[in-house]
Design brief:
Structural class: mainly alpha
Radius of gyration: 17 Å
Number of helices: 5
Number of domains: 1
Shape: globular
Largest sheet: 2 strands, antiparallel
Distance between the termini: 23 Å
Order of helices and strands: HEEHHHH
Strand content: under 5%
Number of strands: 2
Strand order of the largest sheet: 1-2
């Protein structure tokens, strides 16, 4: 598979392509480092970084800010809950489409 093909792979959980997800990950890391340099905690950015890493199949980074919430175990729980919510929304949408006679093939 060429790099051009890899960049165009859709990551539906993130609503973008692999290329866009890598760009979001890079920008999130930049913001996180700026917050840390200024002495401010950034648990929201840490969670965003772990979320993107998870959906890209990368190992998740350890963040001291997330230890207060339970560390990577908590992050895994949050991601699992998010996946369940997305699946439920997808099922609800498909049911509505069946009720109205509209169908989408995935």
């Amino acid at each position: 598979m060429s790099w051009d093909e890899i960049r165009d792979i859709e990551i539906p959980e993130l609503g973008c392509t692999f290329d866009g997800a890598c760009s979001a990950l890079r920008k999130s890391w930049y913001s996180y480092k700026r917050y840390k340099k200024d002495g401010m905690p950034a648990p929201d950015l840490a969670l965003r970084i772990n979320r993107i890493q998870s959906y890209l199949g990368f190992p998740k980074s350890e963040f001291p800010e997330l230890e207060a919430y339970g560390g990577t175990g908590w992050v895994d729980e949050e991601l699992t809950a998010e996946e369940k919510e997305l699946r439920q929304e997808e099922l609800d949408e498909n049911e509505q489409n069946m009720d109205t006679g509209t169908s989408y093939i995935f």
